[in-house]
Specification:
single chain; about 190 residues
């Protein structure tokens, strides 16, 4: 069972001067005209909204992102944004939901950009003689645990016990991975 307790107070950063600027938002006239102290009505409205919507928004964000930690981060960011707009919107719950969905979209978009960048940054394929190139492709096709065991055992010339210790696996499992990996390579590279 997850803990659904709601904090009795909101983080101090909700009313700190310059919150919007640190997030990268442009300050509005409301920010400039707002007193530096906390607006009790806004804080109370946000606290009530937090109690009503926090758990549902975290579930929504988790379903959209697939990550509990990311969901928590995005929902807290959404509440900070709602605090900035709570006096200007008639339906803060709807504004909050839209903000959570938008932040999840931005998260996925950013992850896509990062993935495409990483693909472009991949190291160039090694220029190998044809027989080694074929072997290289066969090694890359092995399951990760078999490839790791084979590379550590034969490339680094480690003993099986050392490979097991390095990978944090039982010696018998490493022996099995090496045996199965060699069998798969033999089958793949057989003439």
């Amino acid at each position: 069972p997850e803990d659904r307790s709601v904090p009795t107070t909101l983080p101090d950063r909700c009313n700190a001067p310059g919150v919007a600027e640190r997030r990268g938002d442009m300050p509005t006239e409301a920010h400039a005209a707002a007193p530096t102290g906390a607006d009790p009505d806004r804080r109370d409205r946000l606290a009530a909204l937090y109690r009503e919507e926090h758990a549902d928004m975290v579930r929504l964000a988790h379903l959209l992102t697939g990550s509990s930690a990311t969901a928590e981060d995005l929902v807290h960011e959404a509440f900070l944004r709602v605090y900035d707009a709570i006096g200007r919107t008639e339906r803060p719950g709807a504004y909050l939901r839209r903000t959570v969905v938008n932040l999840c979209h931005s998260h996925h978009r950013r992850r896509g950009v990062e993935a495409r960048w990483r693909e472009r940054q991949a190291p160039p394929e090694p220029a190998l003689p044809p027989e080694l190139d074929e072997t290289w492709r066969a090694i890359q096709a092995l399951p990760t645990h078999q490839r790791e065991a084979l590379v550590l055992r034969f490339h680094l010339d480690l003993k099986v016990a050392d490979v097991a210790a390095l990978l944090g696996r039982p010696v018998g499992t490493v022996k099995s991975d090496i045996h199965r990996g060699l069998a798969a390579l033999t089958e793949e590279l057989a003439p």
